[in-house]
Structure formats: structure tokens, C-alpha cells
């Protein structure tokens, strides 16, 4: 019962009540760095924004990074979620770890970013910049990726002003800020990143990478043109991008890359030709575009399978009819 009352006092900011409860024998949970489902009054105080309770519990020896819940959220992360800047500032000033992630590998600055807490993010950045260089770069880079993913333009601008590495690769999430902006289809953020030096040649170990392929697969024509405008080297990725466009049945996008000079029989990373992709998925319109550009129905992939094999396997009469017509016209 005493523990329940401690949480009630913490939620209401009733410091004297909390101290009396402790004096009469109510027990605080033991400090632990192992995540527990048992909450702690300091987490309750952080949730409701009561700085006085946070100070008092820290003075009593409570672990400032006490993790609670299935995701292991610390008082700092709880305060960030709720947008309680005074509590965030207090915890940081008293030594809370500004980079300690949850069990889901979400850092405090990433959470402030994705929830749009501009002032909280600014406070966190000021503490992150006091960290060793590697930790600072990692924290700011991850936050920049999160800002692009969640379309937080103002926070992104603040991160860039504070030295966030624009080409940071978040290897666990297989993302860069630029790829996330393209995935979100956000022209403004994509241009902002390119203006700050984002390199459209940098990719990650993901099927929708590099950036030009990502834009093509999602049918973001304006972003495709933007990437070409900013860096002519992306022309090297025209053929790969065309394969993904064909795979998705995007006729106009496929035609666009063909007009830019992409090889209609390109095999992406030993995978399949655009025509095989179109045949496999029954994209007759794309198949027609590719055949008109000279695609060869006899070109095989790394498994020795041709576009005609995929069309027969799928049993798509429209694509098979196109192929028969193409073979007959070739025979003539």
C-alpha cells in the first residue's frame, strides 16, 4: 500500500507527503540496471513533470537511469515523451545519460526528434555536443535519420546547424537521412539534405538502395529528377532503378529511364532483367514499353530463366501474347 501511495504523491508533486510516507516505512524499489516491469516514483514524477520530486528522489540515491517497462524507458526518456522540458533539463544536469537507448534501440534524441519536441531536442543536443566525438556523431547522425523519417523539418535544420553528419549511415536500421526522405516522398527534406551535401551515391544494404533506386521504386519522379540535377553520377544507377520500376509495374518511370539511356536488358546484381520482372508480375504495359525499346525475351537471369519462362510460369495471357507477337515479328 505504501508503494502505491508513493506513486500517487509523485504523480501529484506532493513532496512532503512522499517524504512522510518514506519516514513511516514505505519502500522505494531497489536500484537496478536490469529492466523491470516494476515502476519507480521517479518515473512517475518524470511522466507528470514534477521537478521537485525528481530532485528529492535523486538526493535519496535513486538511480537516475532507472529503466522501467518492457522497453526499458529511463526517467529521461519518459520526460521526453511527455515533453516536460524542465524535467529533461534537470535530469541531464544531474547526470542522466543523454544517449542511453531503450530496448528498442531508440535514443533520447531520436525520441525527441520523432515526437517533434523541438525545445527538448535542442536541450539534448547541447549535452550531446559535450560527449566524445564518436558518440556525438553517432547521436546526431541517428537523430538526423529519424528527423527525415518522421518529416521533422525544423528539428532537421537544427541538427544540421549543430553539425549532424548529413551522410551518416545507420547500419542497424539500414538507412541514411537522404534515403529516409526519399522513402517518405518528401521533396522539401530531400532538397534540404542535398543542399547540405547529402551524397546520392551512398546506399545501404537494402533492396531499395541507392537513393535513385529508392525514388524509382516509389514512383517519386520529381525526386528522381532532383537527384540527377544535384549529382550527374547517379546516371550510373539508371539501369538498376529501371529494373525496380519495371518490377513495380511503373510504365512511365520505366520509359523515363529508357529515354535516359538505360539498357533494357540490364540484369541487376545477377537478379532479373526488367522484362523478366514485368513478366513475373504480369505487368503487360511495362512489358510492352520494354519490348518497344528493344528488350530481348531470350536474355536469361542468374538462374537461367528467360522472360518467356516467367510469363509461362505465371500464366499471364496478355504478356504471353505480347511475347508471341514479338517473336513472330522478329521471325519476319
From TrEMBL:
Keyword Chloroplast: no
Keyword set, alphabetical order: ANK repeat, Repeat
InterPro entries: Ankyrin_rpt, Ankyrin_rpt-contain_sf
Record-linked Gene3D superfamilies: Ankyrin repeat-containing domain
SMART domains membership: ANK (SM00248)
Domain of life: Eukaryota
Record SUPFAM superfamilies: Ankyrin repeat (SSF48403)
Signal peptide: none
Membrane spanning stretches: none
UniProt cross-references to PROSITE patterns, sorted A to Z: ANK_REP_REGION, ANK_REPEAT
ANK repeats: 1-33, 71-103, 173-199, 270-302
Name of the protein this chain belongs to: Uncharacterized protein
